[in-house]
Amino acid sequence: MPTTAQQHEPNGVLCFNTPIGTDQVTAFVSESSLRARYGGLAAACDDLESMYCLHQLEINAAVARRIRAGARQPVVLRASDL
Questions:
Q1: Furthest C-alpha separation in the chain
Q2: Alpha-carbon distance 35 to 37, whole Å?
Q3: Is 81 helix (H, G, I), strand (E, B) or coil?
Q4: Is the per-residue pLDDT at 45 higher than 70?
Q5: Phi and psi for 79 in degrees, rounded to 5?
Q6: Which H or E run includes 23?
Q7: In what order do the strands lie in the sheet with 13-20?
Q8: CA gap 53, 9 in Å, rounded
């Protein structure tokens, strides 16, 4: 499921859009949440965008679960959501 552009905020948060049905849902996930769930990456690709790309399907599924559970936009993912 492709997403639109990701934007790494200066505060260690990644903002991205993910398609849910016919809508684009804006979501945020922090670096600490990603690292808590997935750990670190090799030094050559140790950044939020790379971590997101490696786990994009699972992260997008977490956004979809939150929306189905009644979350409103923007969705903020926690480590426990992933």
A1: 38
A2: 5
A3: helix
A4: no
A5: -55, -35
A6: strand 23-30
A7: 7-8, 13-20, 23-30, 75-77
A8: 16
What six digits make up the tokens of 59? Answer: 């992260």
For tokens 């922090």, what's the residue? 30
DSSP 32-71: HHHHHHH----GGG-SHHHHHHHTHHHHHHHHHHHHHTTP
Question: Nearest 5°: phi and psi at 71?
Answer: -65, 150
Cα–Cα distance for residue pair 2/32, rounded to 1 Å: 23
Instruction: Check whether 3 has a pLDDT greater than 70.
Output: no
pLDDT (0 to 100) of residue 9: 58
Following CA atoms 56, 57, 60, 65 in sequence, which dihedral angle do they give, to the nearest 10 degrees? Answer: -150
